């Protein structure tokens, strides 16, 4: 079909680049004009050029696919990377595919090549696949034809093919074909002072459409200029401006509202670039080449008017509008093509002088200036040009563009061995260095690595050296060397030849990587085409007649606000302050829920929550309340009670609630949570709420759906009721809300809103306020959610052939996979997704190795993590995190070091998959995974394994057995309890509370406060009770007691703990002051007829007793000192324990006189985490007073007075005998009326311990000389260890200004 039919006639106003002729016949069959016809086969030989030819029969004119003319194809004289084959298609053509073939009947073919295109035969541009792949794969023999479909069509007149590799057993041999169709266009050239003004029809609103489009193509060598400018009513303007090689779209409304959107980069390369601005449904779609951005214009634009609001458009400049506000902007200098306003071809109208006004010199051809750039691409690149011997330099210069901060621009040796001159970049500044006997340095400008063209001019005249950057006076420097600046034989640009014998060029700096043009020597322009033809100079690893610079940051591969910087060969993402990490800032550093933070052992507090991980939703600082349920609490701006009174002229009160998270974050949090709720409260007096049962509601609220909700807390949606109406307990049974009774007395309706689809409450309307005497108050609490449906979402695979399948995973440029697994199998595939050639897979390859493998077209790629001696098939949860992006692939398993593999610099970057995603199995192998997979997330989205497992044979939803992995989180004797989704810690046997039994239960005691925990009377003493076996009796006859607690007090002496028995035996822990130092204290257990002094410096210890006169005094220093144990032995038992008392003892029984003396003053201070064997009396009194056998006298309120205790008070332990102890511990232990043998043993032990105590006292008194001065007002008496108990009962000694805390 003849393509030219479609292009005839400009009235069709079609874009030939993007549309196809459609012929619809009467039988409703439509044929679409294809663009794949051969373009080369019918060209004359004069349309072919090459770098060289082996002979006339090997000329470029014979390089046609499937032809045997001449020698069967083109072959150059030499086979090297500087050869090329060029085809002139005669006019600009749309090229959609290319094909190559080796030389007929030979062993000559090209195995890889570059494809270049141009409109003029110079200033070539390289075609890149995926914007990254520079080389095409060619042939593997001389006969087969390899065809490549171009991902994006090329519009050009000239094609050039550069061989990179060829048959090593032959030479370069090539036949070529291109496919496409003719391309017609309308072109206008602007000289920098001209423009076109297109006026719409007189009544533009009559033709207003729902969609408007402005599109064009442009090419220029100037980096700045205005392409489009419009002005409308109400100061609306749109301006499309080229600024420093980037396109800026300015949206203005007056002088206040201004929005700027930037797209594209390096657009001043004298190649065509496509631009489109499309308005549709309140959005603007801004497209530059292959990059697009959607712009929300609701905030400053009337979305119902659109672009048709403007009645004229100026192309090429702004002066066509006569505007004075933007006259400072440059006009465009270059060519525009196919200016389309919707279906209107503006250039065609300009040619016909219809509705278009021309200002200045606008021509309808594109005459391009000739500019020949050269690319320095590698470490071996250099350009050598001859100098003029024995001639002083009059001047020279060069223009360059680069991303690198350093590199050599120019160097040459001075004549007569006078030294060397270097012109180079350092820290993005131009520096000039002349080295002779004295070093001279000049430094100019900065920021020259911005990818823009910059010029450097060097002039040497009459002993003065001048250097100028960008031809600006403020970037000029001068030097006056004492010798003439005359070059030697050669000048070197970019670098030096890599030769050991090279003495003429020395480069102590980095090589230059970038582009150069406009090279002048002695004010004469250098003809780089002659350099390319080897007619002058020499070069290595250069690409002449093209600038191969690439902006790797446009579009940026840095995600989530990461800042992109680049060099010539790579880019870097700065992820600081983004909340994300990785080579492209892809992976979130925060957890997705409070549940995840909790199971890392964290306590309540503020945490950053990233609900969708690597997804687009930003992280948010949210309060996590780690109780038995993990609550996520989101505050808003008005959680206080708001009072309202009747006011004339005001019928309604509107309250809007701004939350600490935005709408997208809130909905994601609510969706992920198992349960959400929000409390609402309404106090009223003569103010109706919902006006039940039949009236219209006076008050309503609006949630996420933007629909009014007419139910209140505790009721269900659509019921128009309050909680009391649903429960049937309203104060007036005729109404469904308490406030609807309309009484003069205050009433309240409150409850929880729990339907997630309506939460959160965004605003509330209160209506019944206009009547005299009406009063109301309302309160909306914070949004609270608990549970994470994703965190525990798991599936159990019990067959190797079983698997779950999901839709294809789409992770073209960035893919992250994270999950937890546990297994006893040695190997298995966790997941796999296949494409035609590409794939992605994560597997357990052995008990100690996880492998992440994939292929994006560059061949299989693997990242491995080995765990050494740690087996991963231990039936415990292990976490795997894999990520693949355009820069690297990484894999992490648990806390093992991260494994990383760099991606190839010029490789494929798009992962293209098309099969289903297999989880727990694979389509390519039979061996699947045996075990559990949990919380599987792909690019931040959690797959619902449980839902899919319910309908899949061989897979069960859920996975029990969490305590093996998380049980260690249960601290302080807490017991891990399995649950369907997770686990919990049972703190019943612990003195601690909290989700992990880590919260200290503490209370402040006053002198009269008493806590008594009472045990049941044993059977022997109470024959009337049943003889049932009860666990509580197990503690009534003990051969050992374990007592532990911590305290903080400024009182001494004091009674801390008292244990009594039904046999009038007792055990007491006393706080006693000893010695002359304010920090020296004793703690005394009391035993009948026995007193043992164990002096010690560390007042923190555990106490346990075994039998009569058997005592373990476990002494612990509070600040990381070691533990000390004391061992005593006896055969008696502490029988029939009656009660444990904390603080003051109020029972009527007889107390030992010394105990009674201390008890009379009570205890002032803090007690925390009190444990007596398996009983926690303080915890029972504070948390379970109604169900525990406790009696509380006086004031007792839970506090945090004990929370400052160290996390690990027992860091080190040493066990040694009592004889080695220094210091004194007074022990009065257990009292008994029998056991003569025990009494004898007690006397013997008493004598021994007294002797040890005397020795300890002697040693201790010697140690006192090193103590600090004793407090004033304290007068120690005799050495009697009983002294503290004989002091006045109400004498209290202050320890220090700051109380200290001790652990027992």
How would you summarize the topology of this molecule?
Elements: H1 4-7, E1 22-24, E2 30-32, E3 37-38, E4 48-50, E5 85-101, E6 110-118, E7 125-126, E8 136-137, E9 146-166, E10 175-182, E11 187-191, E12 195-199, E13 211-219, E14 225-231, E15 236-243, E16 246-253, E17 257-263, E18 273-280, E19 283-288, E20 291-296, E21 312-315, E22 333-341, E23 344-345, H2 346-352, E24 356-359, E25 362-363, E26 374-376, E27 382-386, E28 396-401, E29 407-413, E30 420-426, E31 429-435, E32 439-444, E33 454-461, E34 464-469, E35 476-479, E36 490-493, E37 514-521, E38 524-525, H3 528-532, E39 538-540, E40 542-544, E41 563-566, E42 571-574, E43 580-581, E44 587-588, H4 594-598, E45 605-609, E46 620-626, E47 630-634, E48 642-645, E49 653-656, H5 663-672, E50 675-685, E51 700-702, E52 708-709, H6 723-727, E53 747-753, E54 763-766, E55 775-780, E56 783-786, E57 794-797, E58 804-806, E59 815-822, E60 828-834, E61 839-846, E62 849-855, E63 861-866, E64 878-884, E65 888-893, E66 899-902, E67 917-919, E68 931-938, E69 941-942, H7 945-949, E70 955-957, H8 963-966, E71 975-979, E72 982-986, ...
Parallel strand pairs: 84-90
Antiparallel strand pairs: 1-2, 3-10, 4-5, 5-9, 5-10, 6-7, 6-8, 6-9, 11-22, 11-25, 12-21, 12-24, 13-18, 13-22, 14-15, 14-21, 15-16, 16-17, 18-19, 19-20, 22-23, 26-37, 26-40, 27-36, 27-39, 28-33, 28-37, 29-30, 29-36, 30-31, 31-32, 33-34, 34-35, 37-38, 41-42, 43-44, 45-46, 46-47, 47-56, 48-55, ...
